[in-house]
Amino acid sequence: MADSEGGPGAMAQPRVLLTKEPAPQTVPASDLPMKVYEVGLNTGTDSSSGLATAGFRTAKYLPAEWHLHNSELYHKAFAGCEQAEHGRAEAKELAEYAAAAAQRAQQDSTAAVSQRLQDIHFWKAELQREIQDLDAETRLLAAQKLRLERALDATEVPYAIATDNLQCRERRQAPDLVSDEVERELLKEAELIRNIQELLKRTLMQASNQMRLNRDHKEFCEMDWSDKVETYNIDDKCGKYSNQSTNIQFHPSSVKFEESASTPETWAKFSHDNIYRAEREKLASINLRALIDNILHDTSEDMRKQCAAVNEAFAKHCEELDDTKHKLEHHLKKILKEIGYQEANIAALKQAIKDKEAPMKVAQTRLYDRSFRPNLDLCRDEAQFRLIREVEELTESINSLKKKLLESEQALRNLEDTRMNLEKEIAVKTNSIFIDRQKCMAQRTRYPVVVKLTGYQ
Description:
CATH architecture of the largest domain: Up-down Bundle
CATH topology of the largest domain: Substrate Binding Domain Of Dnak, Chain:A, Domain 2
Radius of gyration: 70 Å
Low-confidence stretches: 1-49
Structural class: mainly alpha
Order of helices and strands: HHHHHHHHH
Mean pLDDT: 83
Distance between the termini: 117 Å
Number of domains: 3
Largest sheet: none
Helix content: over 70%
Strand content: under 5%
């Protein structure tokens, strides 16, 4: 017994003893004969009840019970050892399985984090590319917006020239104050410039709104990119954790899903939608830049064409004015010459009338003196008739000369009026030529060139 309880190597000996000496069968006390039972309990009529055996009459186990008790202890020890050995094997297997499972789980988690890092890096790179594209596109649109502002400022000079030309031409004098081709072209030019200014202002507002949208979507992408960078750094740090890391600790409360957490689908869709909206605004910005190019090209071309039309109308009108002025001056010269002739004619008529006074006096004096002939000598002779015809002829000549004198004087007055009208008309034409050529056409040399109208300067 002492050897069997000695060390770990003696655990198999009770099994040999049990096979050689089977343990006695345990018999319940109730199945024993009544007498034996009483003796076993040290009671009954056959029990020792003397004073000499008083100290040995306590209840004791029977040898069979003693052996049975020991056998039970052996069995329990054997079963406990066997169970412990089986448990140790299971524990070792479980520990190895748990270690392998933990290693596999950690490897899978590391791989998942690495894959997640690749996904984050992809969207981060896409967002960064989109941010750079939007920033570059916004700078290009800002340059186009600056061209629009310069082109709008450049239209102020042509509009001022057109309105000043119209105001200057209002100072033309009455005969030349007409609604001619130059005025129609100037009105068309002023209306064109006003429409172009309104178009450029609307385009400027559209460009400002598009730049604001570009910046807004760039900000959305930057916020998303910033989150991706922070998430990438966190996941990169998590991917570098190992069992030997010194900065790891228990966080039991972290083993749960946040209520506000997104799914991989919604996470990817969020970045995809940001990039899609940014791409859409970038495309709108590109189209707007192309539209601005076309608008600036078309408006500058239209303004230059209308400027050429106005200049052509001015040149044509100035030629007409010059031609008219030259003709008026030519006619004025003729009128002045004719006035000189007419004045000489009037002087000759007056002298002719005066020259008829002496013959009229002679003839009338003769008739008067012959009226004093006496008696029958007061005869209607041929001389009398001839003197009378002479007086009548002289009177008729004088009347004719006076009538012609009146006509010549009236003609002279008409010539003088014509001269005055011609001189006034020449002055009007001179004023009109000065306004159109010296004021308007000289001012139109300040008209901006195409480069300035397209907003490059």
